[in-house]
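Example record

One chain of 142 residues, shown exactly as stored in the release files.
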Amino acid sequence: MRYVAAFARLTRAAQNPTTKHYSVKMGVIKIKSSDQYKDAIKGDGISAIEFCAPWEEPCKAISPKFDGFSQSDKFKSLKFYRVDICESQDVAMDSGVKLTPTYHYYKDGEKIGEYVGSSYPALERSIASHSHGVGSSPPASA
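Predicted structure tokens for this chain:
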């Protein structure tokens, strides 16, 4: 019951534009069909899509980090998606994924980048470099 009350408070806080202490992010959305994938890449803004095999050790290790990035205010301009290549082989094949984990970045239907690997720092740099669109760099840190 405490969890329900806490969630209700967070939801109300997120809906109140004067509240700065809480934000509710959607997290990683699982893509289960080709149609859902097409909608994700054609949507407004920038989409980061993780292609993974849930039984593979590198994917099991880095997927929680991707989940964490999806919750970060630092990357709030991106939409995060995940494709299980075992469940959605057609999506993985249509996307040209050959190794996992692979990360694709799309803006307004166009692929703007890719990262293949399981290095946490490299994934974070990849997400940061694509979080501002094609050919742009993340803002300099103060």
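Notes: The chain has five helices and five strands.
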